[in-house]
Amino acid sequence: MSKSAKPESSKPKKVTRRRWSRLKKAEIVDLFERFSKQRPDPRGELDYSNAYTLLVAVVLSAQATDVGVNKATGPLFAIADTPEKMVALGEEKVRDYIKTIGLYRNKAKNVILLSQKLIDEYCSEVPADRDALVGLPGVGRKTANVVLNIFFGQSTIAVDTHIFRLSNRVGLAPGKNVDDVELALDKIIPKEFKRHSHHWLILHGRYVCKARKPDCKKCIIADLCTFKDKTYSVPAPIVELDSYENQQGQPDNTGEFTG
């Protein structure tokens, strides 16, 4: 005679609260205070003149370097810096301008489609709303977050490969995927630092905490970092950098922004 199945418990299953960071709260504050002193006015590295050209530039930057995108968009934006001008230019000519960028055929198609949708549904204006932005062709959550942060000043964080790597390596916001890391960063970053946190993290990951060979000796948060293979534990002196043109060595362009 088989044993009867145990009745399901009426009590809710215990949910273990996630530890959002391996760093203590005071260490997180210290980390961002250092970044804020190093880069008081952090800026992105894509060239743009308005919300529309920023949106297009970010769409084009998927699996491409910012330097490569800027070389292509300089001539393109000189003649097409509005949705109307871009649609008038046409997909074929857009392809000619951006053919040095990876996936240029699909990107040219999306640029024309999103431009037309902006004309038809948003009076040619870029909406300051994430749901509206991700409804545009070629625009994902990360692209929307970049535009909302850079142009509209919203405290959004777009987790690219650099931020994902740094967050896990340093122990700031460990996560198995970009969504996990974004959620963790949103939970642990103090409100006063959220506005610029995206730029601080991406620039530190790009110029210091590189993928293949992190430059620990130049790291201003080396003492806070939990990376077991770090080569230096003494924080570098904080030297103020006034713009992205005054960075710390060569950038790490491996696996640039996607989505």
UniProtKB/TrEMBL annotation:
Function: DNA repair enzyme that has both DNA N-glycosylase activity and AP-lyase activity. The DNA N-glycosylase activity releases various damaged pyrimidines from DNA by cleaving the N-glycosidic bond, leaving an AP (apurinic/apyrimidinic) site. The AP-lyase activity cleaves the phosphodiester bond 3' to the AP site by a beta-elimination, leaving a 3'-terminal unsaturated sugar and a product with a terminal 5'-phosphate.
Binding, [4Fe-4S] cluster: 209, 216, 219, 225
Gene Ontology MF, one: 4 iron, 4 sulfur cluster binding
Domain annotation HhH-GPD: ranges: 60-207
Gene of this entry: nth
One of the GO biological process terms: base-excision repair, AP site formation
Signal peptide boundaries: none
Any matching Pfam family: HHH
InterPro entries registered for this protein in UniProt: DNA_glycosylase (IPR011257), Endonuclease3_FeS-loop_motif (IPR003651), HhH-GPD_domain (IPR003265), HhH_base_excis_C (IPR023170), HhH_motif (IPR000445), Nth (IPR005759)
SMART domains referenced in this protein's UniProt entry, alphabetically: ENDO3c (SM00478), FES (SM00525)
Keywords: 4Fe-4S, DNA damage, DNA repair, DNA-binding, Endonuclease, Glycosidase, Hydrolase, Iron, Iron-sulfur, Lyase, Metal-binding, Nuclease
Domain of life of the source: Bacteria
NCBIfam families, alphabetized: nth
Cofactor-binding details, from the entry: Binds 1 [4Fe-4S] cluster.
Species per Swiss-Prot/TrEMBL record: Cohaesibacter gelatinilyticus
Parts of the chain that traverse the membrane: none
Gene3D superfamilies: Helix-hairpin-Helix base-excision DNA repair enzymes (C-terminal), Hypothetical protein, domain 2
Enzyme Commission number, as recorded: 4.2.99.18
Protein name: Endonuclease III
Catalytic activity, as annotated: 2'-deoxyribonucleotide-(2'-deoxyribose 5'-phosphate)-2'-deoxyribonucleotide-DNA = a 3'-end 2'-deoxyribonucleotide-(2,3-dehydro-2,3-deoxyribose 5'-phosphate)-DNA + a 5'-end 5'-phospho-2'-deoxyribonucleoside-DNA + H(+)
Needed co-factor(s): [4Fe-4S] cluster
Assigned protein family: Belongs to the Nth/MutY family.
